[in-house]
Amino acid sequence: MPPVLVYHDYIHGNGVLFRRLCRHYGGANVALCDARDILSGALDEARLLVMPGGADLYYCEKLNGAGNDLIRSFVEQGGAYLGICAGAYYAARDIMWAQDTPHRISGRRSLAFFPGTVTGPVAAFIEDGDVEKSWKNAVRIRFGEDCHTVLYDGGGLFTDDDTCDVLARYDDLPGRPAAIISCAVGKGMAILSSPHIEYDADSFCDSLYKHCNNSFAWEESVARRMKRAAPQTQDLLALVLDRSYKQ
Questions:
Q1: For residue 230, how many C-alpha atoms fall within 13 Å in the half-sphere facing its CB?
Q2: Which of 5, 16, 22, 103 has the fewest CB atoms within 10 Å, i.e. is most exposed?
């Protein structure tokens, strides 16, 4: 297996993330893997495991138990884990999603690279603050001295983040809570991103459809804001990987 593996669960489409990683590391160095691959030793030669966005209950179904034990051992022995949105929720000790709604998800997660709770979605970012509508927004985060406009799509906020290094913060929220963190795990590390840092304005625009999308007008406005900010927005995924993980 190549050194960079992207987890594939057959439910979510993560082509944008896969292409971005291929562009950054070279196509020969990136591959998809599923739960069967992990249980069969795919992490033995890997350097970085990327857990994409989606819904983490699908990850729990296939990986709880032996799969998560192998992922944790991989990181503790010097590997790196990049969790984006659902992948960040999945790597927390506890998750709280859509509390006080019929979509509520909460509970412990066994990886627990982040020893706190990830809570979402952020009501201030989603359409009309309503979990039944679009979770997407163009939001500003501060990475070092620079401000970047990135895609938010239901990611969570990290509580008790003083145990980890904060790489970026949400500029648009009171108190500027952490948006991207890095946690030491044994000899390795876990990088957890609340926003979808793999998307740029063009790839988000390409993902939009009117068909069966009651939130198209909202999401089209998100795309326009990302387009306007594009000249000032650097490749944040590359910046995070280069700052935090060396192949």
A1: 14
A2: 103
The answer to whether the CB of 167 falls within 8 A of the CB of 161 is no
Q: How many domains does the chain have?
A: 1
Considering only CA atoms, which of 150, 85, 168 is closest in space to residue 121?
Answer: 85
Q: CA 48, CA 84: separation in Å to the nearest integer?
A: 13
Indicate the pTM of the whole model: 0.96
36: which residues sit within 8 A by CB, 6+ positions away? none
pLDDT tens string 112-133: 999 999 999 999 999 999 999 9
β-pairing, 114-120 vs 92-97, is parallel
CATH no. for residue 144?
3.40.50.880
d(CA 205, CA 71): 34
Domain span at residue 158? 4-244
Backbone angles phi, psi at 157, to 5 degrees: -105, 145
Whole-Å CA distances, 184 to 75, 112, 126: 9, 12, 31
Instruction: Tell me what the pLDDT averaged over the chain comes to.
Output: 94
